[in-house]
Amino acid sequence: MKSEARESDRRDPFDRIFHPANIAIMGVSAKGNMFGTGILNALEAIKFSGTIYAVNPKGGEFNGRRIYRSLDEIPVGIDFAIIAVPAEKVPAALEECRRKGVAGAEILSAGFSELGTEAGRRLEQEIRDISAKGIRVVGPNCFGIYCPRSGLTLLPGPDLSRETGPVGFLSQSGGMSIDFAHIGKWMGIGFSKVISFGNGADLRETELLAYFGDDPETEVIAMYMEGVDQGREFFKVLKDVASRKPVIINKGGLSEAGSRAVASHTASMGGSGTIWKSVLRQSGAVQVGDLWEMAEACLAFSLLPPRVFENITVAGGGGALGVSACDIAEQFGFSIPMLEPHISEAIVEHLPKPGSSAKNPIDAANPFTSPQAYRQAFLNAAKDPRIDLQILIQLLYHYKVLAMSFGNLPVKDVAPYGEFAEMASEVTAATDKPVVVVMPNLKQGREALDIEDLIREARAAFLAKGIPVFSDLGNCLRALAHVSSYYARRKARGHEDACRTY
Amino acid sequence: MKSEARESDRRDPFDRIFHPANIAIMGVSAKGNMFGTGILNALEAIKFSGTIYAVNPKGGEFNGRRIYRSLDEIPVGIDFAIIAVPAEKVPAALEECRRKGVAGAEILSAGFSELGTEAGRRLEQEIRDISAKGIRVVGPNCFGIYCPRSGLTLLPGPDLSRETGPVGFLSQSGGMSIDFAHIGKWMGIGFSKVISFGNGADLRETELLAYFGDDPETEVIAMYMEGVDQGREFFKVLKDVASRKPVIINKGGLSEAGSRAVASHTASMGGSGTIWKSVLRQSGAVQVGDLWEMAEACLAFSLLPPRVFENITVAGGGGALGVSACDIAEQFGFSIPMLEPHISEAIVEHLPKPGSSAKNPIDAANPFTSPQAYRQAFLNAAKDPRIDLQILIQLLYHYKVLAMSFGNLPVKDVAPYGEFAEMASEVTAATDKPVVVVMPNLKQGREALDIEDLIREARAAFLAKGIPVFSDLGNCLRALAHVSSYYARRKARGHEDACRTY
Is 0.95 topped by the overall pTM? Predict the structure, then answer.
């Protein structure tokens, strides 16, 4: 027993926390009515890769699983603990973990400094004191850690994905963590780790950001922040990490009322919005306004090459679409240049007539234009050396009318989304200019659930080929603008640094 | 026959166009392969209220329906004609209509000035000349008229709603018209008329806007414009109409590339973006950036009272939600004031503990808080005289986990959306302060179509009670800001005018 604990000790504590060989859950009751039972069920549902030990001083059994009375009863060393006991019992449970040699614990329980009471603050200080003696703590008042590789999951997260990916997400808010993990699942964002650190008694933004900066599994970092503990140190780390990996930050509470809401939510000092904005800008981080903008930026950063995009094509069926695309593109700093006449001519040859136009935007005249025609359009447009990226607008809902006219076929059988995904990925590979897809749904009525189903299938088909999909052109261009301006800034700074060296 | 034609003549031509006793469709082929067949099928599908006469010089039968060789063969007078013959045959068809005494015709055919050719321009001039002799024309190069009351529908519009409502929509672009009509159907926007006027050879923005201004069926006017024919006259009419009814305008082609796309789309002169923006501002119209913003503004204008909203409450389950709400509210000029302590206390009494907070934003601690608790929250908050409007954020997707834990019940059976709709409508009636709902969907995966289904059912339940529903808080507040600032401007102008009188 002791030797196994010592064996574990040789591994890096963060590695033992994120990829634990085993977990102890403190606070699983035989009656199944405690907080810890929820996380136990979630870990079983998501098929956590290691061994789970349930712990409760009362002992007993839950769903055929033995409940240990204490960590000492467990015959092996423990890597990671989940503490879900009432607030006043948390310090004793954490101390028990520390004595057992546990590398880290996430404390899901609430009832600490966020209450704004003296008792709450004192309990949190006890956690801090125990942690300082040699155990890392995530929380309290948090939803914990989600790590798809090992199968750790957030508090109400039984149905999260086990697929890993490049995005690491940090959040003071538990709600934001679980929401972001859920959005990521269908939007196509793969996670290395999601960490909800709540009140952040020990581990919090600065150290976790530095960890993500060095973590080889994490290539894109996203954060939801309400306040900051050590501002100067945080911004130093942020500047360093953001110079190596994109760091996308959603700072909540930039408004006056928002800052008041922050105080009653995670007990952080919000700070002035103006100062935050300017400091974040200087740090080289990517600033986003909400969860959706953050998710779309993460998707773009994880699926697109690290480049500056300036000139794009937009192709789809329907003229007003093109007009609107141009207006939005300009707003986000992109240009939709008119293609050379010989390129336009080569494209328009493959498009339906009348009604098509290939000056850029490329108007394919109707929403049923074939993947083959678009292939020719994109391959030809890519020959224009100015073009950096191409956008395909897919109005799949129109296929419903087509499906009806073919004797009420299922719309999924009529829309050639698989061929479109194939085409987009082939064109991207052949031209080294990414094709990005926008698939809005204008028919969201109760009778048209089959269109939503089609769009979701199609999104999955594009994502399986590494093609990012957005549901709105404006949001797509906003995300692309984040990628582009991040790498433009990095390029400019690299240039500055090079100049300084001489 | 002649007497019947004269009988029709006594009615107002616009009334005969929008509510025709009968229609002639020029261009229905016995083989069913002509353009006119599509609109014939659509009119039958939507159950047009009057009689339809199919016309083709070749005669014959289609689906058991007689095809008349000419209008003269039809034994009664005709109110309205739909012309769907090849461009070069359009002038003759239109002249035939005029001689028959038809009040107006929509010309769906393309191949006129939008081609940019001399031949196209000449054909369009012929249409204009015939029209000047006594027949109103919508089009050419358009998708026609949708009028739910009479059952006229747009080109690919067999599945539009027959429910009428206060919104009149004008558009040069056919695609925008059909898209907007589809969005309106599920978003809860009822239409008086939707008019796609394409190249606008006769009827176009100025006259149609003036018509909507006087039309008692139209209370809210929305327009998608690419260019304008008679700028000075249009802005005079716009200023007048906008002082009486909200006019929401989406001007396409404000950017440089957009303006180029406009030229190849509807052959309009786009004009400088800066000039347009400033002229629209001076006119008192509501300017929106795209179709979604226009739809959400129409929803808000049609379901909310004509008022200025300044102070709001936001209630929902989850703290970071409240923080984000405050930030967004400030951005759109709303205030989320802290409620009086006695009001907060009265509210928090009904909310789950711990974790709830009722300072405003009202954090209901978890997403399963009952409609009864929210009723108390909203009724109490409404006692604060500053509060103008209340927002309920409903995270219905959370009910999936609840449904699963109840032995995999259908999520629609578990989420009490009907009671929430009841509550929202009762609170609105009792307090005269509207309750508005935001229902985002964070679980859009292929496996979670039941959540989308639930949200659509819930939206319909709220709409049936007259409660507007938005899918995103930012979009909701943007729409509310349009309503609020429109009525604030009208109030300010009314005041100015009153001062001028003395």
Answer: no
